[in-house]
């Protein structure tokens, strides 16, 4: 049975109306090499056959690989309770909660999520979530432009190159001026930043820890930026906030981040979770929706969507964002994760990450020719210089069941000899020792 | 009934002209269509504006609506009372619920505005 009940005549008329010769013509703007070779789909198969086929495909994925790859996405432990709660059909199958009278549970979960994000970042308000860390950063830039009425953005070189690429694609048809300022000794270059701060600048975008894993207290940059009326956006790694100074303590204006590390498994392209938090004075310029706590006509506690009047379905082209949805299920994973870890658990995870990272650095320095970048303090990720091409080293270690790291040369021409290594609380001493042994073997035997 | 001494726009703003100054607000019809007003985003004082520019946003529980400049000129005053008590617009749209004051740049533009009976006629048709 066909699900598309258009006969050939219908198709012909539709194509004629829009002035296209064939269906193929509709896809002309997509480069040939990115298109499927054909749209002919094989005949239907039984459930059993389909399951067998996909199991076989899935088995091609390497399993039990020890990973030291980070770059914004990290292999943290996910307590079993996260899956148990998220799998409840009341959460799992519910659609976006537009009607408070039928979705109090979902709304309460979003409210608790917002509360957790504000406690984690120290900020006054969080929205109900965004797609991912990159789009959240783009939203923050647009928000700063709305607040200040200015259109220049300064981006620190320590901001993830993936996020910077996303920023440029999203803004490619807008007239926004971008300035990028490379890091110095792995940290933000204060002197150069100050030179570029002016009354045309809407915001400076920083990241902590930055892409090289380096931690930095940006309080001084915030102060000089505010003197010029420039807002400060900071992208953060939530797990690091278990031990680091919060964005609020640095007086940052808008905080964003990737929430994957909060109970969301690693997978290609997500789904992940973006978060954004800000000062109360800016909430009406913040994209998306906020869930508020209120009382009903009988004085009972209840939860409602507030500020959705600024969203796309009501404000159309004047909406605060055209990425109008939220990431409810991933946000739910995050709130369950944060609740189960608690403040102490969070600190413990962060401390374990740091301790294991320092142990890994020490062990790496025992290998001839390996140089750990120690010019600035790091959280759980750092750059190392290798005596051999990192791409080759990484590929040889994969064969040994180890994902060694991220080759920095992929985004930085001057860092072709460098690899980024991330260590989470999941890596055991034994795994780290195996990694060191295998790396030494790949480099020198 | 709408006050006789005011001028009106099709966007449901009222304008009270006093010499070269104009006080702007929204009509009773507009506030009742919007419902409970929860927030008013006021324009910056000193801002130069052109007739038809969006100068403020009135947010109710149902919608966020733009207020358009009925005349060109400069914003010389805003109703700060609305920051804490936006519901004043619902209670007294033609009085304490005024939104901003404009220094008129081109008195000729006032001729484009509707008088009370024309506005009443117009809003009846909606």
Q: The CATH topology of chain B is what?
A: OB fold (Dihydrolipoamide Acetyltransferase, E2P)
Q: Oligomeric state of the chains? A: heterodimer
Low-confidence regions of chain B? none
Strand content of chain A: 5-15%
The largest contact between protein chains, plus residue counts on each side, is:
A-B, 6 and 9 residues
Which parts of chain A are unreliable, with pLDDT below 50 for 5 consecutive residues or more? none
Number of domains of chain A: 2
Write the layout of secondary structure elements.
The complex is a heterodimer of chains A (445) and B (126).
Chain A: H1 8-18, H2 47-59, E1 66-67, H3 80-86, H4 89-92, H5 104-121, E2 125-126, H6 133-148, E3 152-156, H7 161-170, E4 177-181, H8 190-196, E5 201-208, H9 219-227, E6 231-236, E7 254-258, E8 274-278, E9 290-295, E10 301-306, H10 312-315, H11 328-364, E11 371-372, E12 381-385, H12 390-398, E13 402-403, E14 406-407, E15 418-422, H13 429-444
Parallel strand pairs in A: 1-13, 3-4, 3-5, 5-6, 6-7
Antiparallel strand pairs in A: 2-8, 7-8, 9-10, 11-12, 12-15, 14-15
Helix pairs in contact in A: 3-11, 5-11, 6-7, 11-13
Chain B: E1 7-8, E2 13-18, E3 21-26, H1 28-34, E4 37-41, E5 48-49, E6 54-60, E7 64-68, E8 73-78, H2 81-84, H3 88-91, E9 100-104, H4 116-125
Antiparallel strand pairs in B: 1-2, 2-3, 3-9, 4-6, 5-8, 6-7, 8-9
Walkthrough of the structure:
- The complex is a heterodimer of chains A (445) and B (126).
- With 445 residues, chain A is an alpha/beta fold.
- Chain A folds into two domains: 66-76 and 343-444, Aspartate Aminotransferase, domain 1 (Alpha-Beta Complex); 80-337, 3-Layer(aba) Sandwich (Aspartate Aminotransferase, domain 2), CATH 3.40.640.
- Chain A is built from 13 helices and 15 strands.
- In chain A, helix 3 runs antiparallel to helix 11 (328-364), helix 5 (104-121) runs parallel beside helix 11 and helix 6 packs across helix 7.
- With 126 residues, chain B is of the alpha+beta class.
- Chain B has one domain: RNA polymerase II/Efflux pump adaptor protein, barrel-sandwich hybrid domain (OB fold (Dihydrolipoamide Acetyltransferase, E2P)).
- Chain B has helices at 28-34, 81-84, 88-91, 116-125; strands at residues 7-8, 13-18, 21-26, 37-41, 48-49, 54-60, 64-68, 73-78, 100-104.
- A six-stranded antiparallel beta sheet of chain B has the order 1-2-3-9-8-5.
- The longest helix of chain B has 10 residues, at 116-125.
- The model of chain B has no long low-confidence stretch (mean pLDDT 93).
- Chains A and B meet through loops of A and loops of B.
């Amino acid at each position: 049975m066909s699900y598309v009940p258009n006969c050939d005549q219908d198709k012909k008329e539709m194509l004629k109306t829009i002035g296209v010769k064939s269906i193929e013509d509709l896809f002309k703007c997509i480069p040939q090499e990115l298109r499927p070779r054909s749209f002919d789909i094989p005949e239907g198969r039984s459930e059993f056959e389909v399951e067998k086929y996909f199991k076989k495909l899935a088995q091609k994925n390497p399993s039990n690989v020890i990973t030291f790859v980070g770059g914004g996405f990290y292999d943290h432990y996910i307590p079993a309770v996260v899956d148990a709660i998220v799998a409840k059909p009341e959460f799992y199958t519910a659609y976006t909660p537009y009607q408070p009278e039928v979705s109090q549970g979902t709304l309460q979960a979003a409210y608790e999520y917002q509360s957790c994000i504000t406690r984690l970042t120290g900020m006054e308000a969080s929205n109900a979530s965004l797609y991912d860390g990159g789009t959240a950063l783009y939203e923050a830039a647009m928000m700063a432009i709305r607040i200040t009425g200015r259109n220049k953005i300064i981006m620190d070189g320590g901001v993830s190159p993936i996020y910077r690429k996303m920023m440029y694609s999203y803004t490619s048809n807008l007239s926004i001026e971008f300035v990028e300022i490379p890091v110095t000794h792995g940290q933000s270059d204060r002197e150069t930043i100050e030179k570029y701060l002016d009354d045309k600048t809407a915001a400076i975008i920083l990241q902590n820890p930055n892409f090289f894993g380096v931690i930095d207290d940006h309080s001084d940059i915030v102060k000089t930026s505010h003197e010029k009326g420039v807002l400060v956006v900071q992208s953060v790694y939530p797990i690091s906030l278990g031990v680091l100074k919060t964005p609020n303590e640095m007086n940052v204006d808008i905080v964003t981040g990737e929430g994957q590390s909060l109970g969301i498994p690693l997978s290609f392209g997500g789904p992940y979770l973006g978060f954004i938090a800000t000062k109360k004075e800016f909430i009406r310029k913040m994209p998306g929706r906020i869930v508020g706590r209120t009382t009903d006509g009988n004085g009972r506690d209840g939860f409602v969507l507030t500020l959705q009047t600024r969203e796309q379905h009501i404000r159309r082209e004047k909406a605060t964002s055209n990425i109008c949805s939220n990431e409810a299920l991933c946000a739910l994973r995050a709130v369950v994760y944060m609740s189960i870890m608690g403040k102490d658990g969070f600190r413990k995870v962060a401390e374990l990450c740091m301790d294991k990272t320092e142990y890994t650095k020490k062990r790496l320095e025992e290998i001839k020719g390996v140089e750990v970048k120690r010019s600035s303090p790091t959280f759980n990720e750092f750059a190392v210089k290798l005596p051999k091409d990192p791409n080759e080293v990484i590929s040889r270690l994969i064969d040994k069941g180890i994902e060694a790291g991220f080759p920095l040369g992929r985004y930085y021409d001057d860092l072709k000899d460098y690899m980024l290594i991330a260590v989470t609380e999941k890596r055991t001493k034994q795994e780290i020792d195996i990694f060191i042994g295998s790396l030494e073997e790949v480099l020198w035997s | 009934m709408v006050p006789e001494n005011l001028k009106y726009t099709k966007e449901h703003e009222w304008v009270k002209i006093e010499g070269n100054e104009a006080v702007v607000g929204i009509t009773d019809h507009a506030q009742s269509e919007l419902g409970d007003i929860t927030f008013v985003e006021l324009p910056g004082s000193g801002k130069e504006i052109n007739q038809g520019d969006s100068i403020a946003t009135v947010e109710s529980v149902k919608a966020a609506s733009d207020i358009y400049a009925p005349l060109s000129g400069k914003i010389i005053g805003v109703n700060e009372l609305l920051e804490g008590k936006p519901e004043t617009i619902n209670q007294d749209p033609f009085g304490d619920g005024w939104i901003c004051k404009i220094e008129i740049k081109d008195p000729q533009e006032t001729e484009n505005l509707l008088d009370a009976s024309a506005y009443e006629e117009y809003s009846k048709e909606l």
